[in-house]
Amino acid sequence: MRHIIALAIKAMMVILVSVFVLSMFNGYPFLNTTLLALIITGAAYIIGDIFILRATNNTVATISDIGLCTIAIWLIGPIVYGIAVPFSVALLTGVIIGAGEWFFHKFMSNAVFEKDERLVGGH
C-alpha cells in the first residue's frame, strides 16, 4: 500500500510539472502530456526510486531522475505528440521534476523504505 501511495504522489507531481511546462507554456496537448507524464512516472519510480535511490543516495537518485526525465521527454515526447520536443524544454521540465524528486526521495526513504526493511528484518 505504501508503494501505491508513493506512486500516486509521484504521478501527481510529474503530471503537474509536465502540464505546467509542456502544455501551458509550450502548447502541447493536455492528454498527450498526461500520458507522457504517466510513462515517465512508471519508469522513474522503478529505475530512480526503487533501484538507484536504494543503492546510492538522494543526490545520485535526483541527478539520475533529472537525466531520465529529460531524455524520456526528449525521445518519447515526439512519439506521444507527433512533433519534436526541443531539448531545452525537456531539460527544463526534467530539472523542475528533479527539484520535486529531491523531497520525494526523502519521503521514500522515511515512509516507504524504512518500513519495508523492518518487514524483512533489515533494521
UniProtKB/TrEMBL annotation:
Membrane-spanning parts: 7-28, 34-53, 60-77, 83-104
InterPro entries the record matches: DUF2512 (IPR019649)
Coiled coil: none
Transmembrane helix among keywords: yes
Domain of life: Bacteria
Signal sequence coordinates: none
Key words of the record: Membrane, Transmembrane, Transmembrane helix
Name the UniProt record assigns to this protein: DUF2512 family protein
Annotated organism of origin: Evansella cellulosilytica (strain ATCC 21833 / DSM 2522 / FERM P-1141 / JCM 9156 / N-4) (Bacillus cellulosilyticus)
